[in-house]
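Field log, afternoon session.

UNIT: design team B
ACTIVITY: writing a sequence onto a fixed backbone
BACKBONE:
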């Protein structure tokens, strides 16, 4: 499985395209495109690599990770997959944008396909395992590719840090417990691909992350 990263919008969100080079099936994870140029960059990559989008997945539904949801949904005919506990966040996108004084034209929207801990999403011939890591938001999930050795952690775990928990539905103790039980139990050489910033590994975070 291959992974390509795009950094979108004023929050610097990592949008990932995960794809099987054999079947050319792809998942778009956390589409953060906020304008035409960013949307075109993603669509050009898809076209250039002849990829067929079969999944649209949100690790969580804070506004910066879902700006491009409806563009991907409409362009590729896929449904929005996320944990149902974050549905309320998508349905209050406009309110959240107003709080940050961000003019957005993306309508409020919810979860189409509910994902839960233990679900498996096939991208071509390779699985992505859904891991529940609540705390940053009530429905935060991570996506683990055991065969390729990486995990997309959204805003739960970063290089040297963890997600903020002062937003609606956040809880610090819940987040730390989820990280320890769901992420720190992965193999040490697992590459961590976070929602913002650069990559790290599970082993490195075990040794050096001051929050864990």
């Amino acid at each position: 499985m291959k992974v390509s990263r795009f950094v979108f919008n004023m929050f610097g969100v990592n949008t990932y395209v995960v794809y099987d080079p054999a079947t050319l099936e792809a998942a778009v994870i956390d589409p953060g495109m906020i304008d035409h140029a960013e949307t075109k960059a993603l669509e050009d990559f898809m076209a250039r690599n002849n990829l067929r989008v079969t999944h649209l997945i949100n690790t969580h539904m804070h506004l910066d990770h879902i700006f491009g949801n409806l563009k991907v949904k409409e362009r590729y005919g896929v449904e929005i997959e996320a944990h149902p506990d974050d549905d309320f966040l998508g349905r209050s996108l406009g309110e959240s944008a107003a709080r940050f004084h961000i003019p957005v034209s993306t309508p409020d929207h919810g979860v189409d396909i509910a994902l839960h801990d233990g679900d498996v999403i096939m991208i071509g011939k390779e699985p992505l395992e859904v891991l529940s890591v609540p705390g940053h938001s009530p429905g935060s999930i991570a996506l683990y590719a055991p065969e390729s050795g990486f995990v997309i952690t959204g805003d739960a775990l970063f290089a040297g840090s963890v997600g903020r928990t002062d937003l609606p539905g956040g809880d610090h103790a819940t987040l730390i417990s989820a990280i320890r039980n769901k992420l720190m139990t992965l193999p040490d050489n697992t590459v961590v691909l976070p929602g913002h910033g650069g990559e790290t590994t599970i082993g490195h975070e075990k040794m050096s992350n001051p929050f864990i």
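LOG NOTE: The mean pLDDT is 97.
NEXT ACTIVITY: expression trials, pending approval
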